[in-house]
Amino acid sequence: MDDQIHFYEAKLRFEIDSWDLYEALRKGERVMVIDARSPEAYEREHIPHAINLPHRAMNEENASLLDRSVIYVTYCDGIGCNASTKGALNLARLGFTVRELMGGIDWWKRDGYATEGVEGGEGRSVSCGC
Prior knowledge:
The protein has one domain (about 1-110): 3-Layer(aba) Sandwich (Oxidized Rhodanese, domain 1). It has helices spanning about 1-15, 20-25, 40-45, 60-65, 85-95, 105-110; strands at about 15, 30-35, 50, 70-75, 95-100. It is globular and about 45 Å long. With about 130 residues, it is an alpha/beta fold. The protein has a five-stranded parallel sheet. Strand 2, helix 3 (about 40-45) and strand 3 (about 50) form a beta-alpha-beta unit.
């Protein structure tokens, strides 16, 4: 039973859902959102205030510009993409505190939150019932 508890506690330390992220941003908590996709995908659409740092380009040099006192939340397209996982791993290896956005930008929009960019727009709320 203790293994299960530790697993789920750890999972909540390393993942965040869109509602919790939205609330953290709204409250001004020390959270920075990282879009781990390509610059082209970021330009098309991204979470407001997110910065683009593609997982393939993360290194000590460009990470040296990041504030180590904040929590970084990485995201990508969603379930079928693992750029957010690769980005979170890269940042963790560089010594940052990181959480991964569950469901990526897809679930962000499904929870009704707006996006920015050339194709940005209002979210389309699909209630999950939680």
